[in-house]
């Protein structure tokens, strides 16, 4: 089935719910690895297909590059998710997420920073790229 904007929106809602559930139960101040494990549990509990620590393939012209780049989660082969537990998200983290989205041909990316009081208002950033604009409504 070809993804549509409404499918992406529904999937985003489920992913946000998983992240909020983790944050509601654990709060801020823990290691990213703890949030990672709990977020994976919540995605699985919601019946979502995902890949964790997915190695990012890089194709440059006719060259395939073996990279050590890994995204935290690639959900339903559509949405790239990065988790953080920092006081502030550095610009390079945003740049990496956008690059991962491009390399994976992912129409949407979400970054969650669990080191905040209110995840929904302070700790979530959403990104879209050209792949999103070509989706049907």
From TrEMBL:
Query: What name appears for this protein in its UniProt entry?
Result: GxxExxY protein
What Pfam families does UniProt report for this protein, alphabetically?
PDDEXK_3
The beginning of the lineage is: Bacteria, Pseudomonadati, Bacteroidota, Cytophagia, Cytophagales
Q: Supply the InterPro entries for this chain.
A: GxxExxY (IPR026350)
* Source species, domain of life: Bacteria
């Amino acid at each position: 089935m070809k993804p549509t904007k409404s499918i992406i929106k529904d999937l985003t809602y489920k992913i946000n719910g998983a992240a909020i559930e983790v944050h509601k139960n654990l709060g801020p101040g823990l290691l990213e690895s703890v949030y990672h494990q709990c977020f994976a549990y919540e995605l699985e509990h919601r019946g979502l297909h995902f890949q964790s620590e997915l190695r990012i393939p890089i194709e440059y012209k006719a060259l395939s590059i073996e990279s050590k780049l890994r995204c935290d989660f690639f959900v339903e082969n559509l949405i790239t998710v990065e988790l953080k537990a920092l006081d502030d998200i550095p610009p390079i983290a945003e740049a990496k997420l956008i690059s991962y989205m491009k390399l994976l041909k992912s129409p949407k990316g979400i970054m969650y920073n669990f080191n905040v009081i209110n995840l929904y208002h302070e700790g979530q950033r959403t990104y879209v790229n050209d792949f999103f604009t070509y989706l049907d409504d």
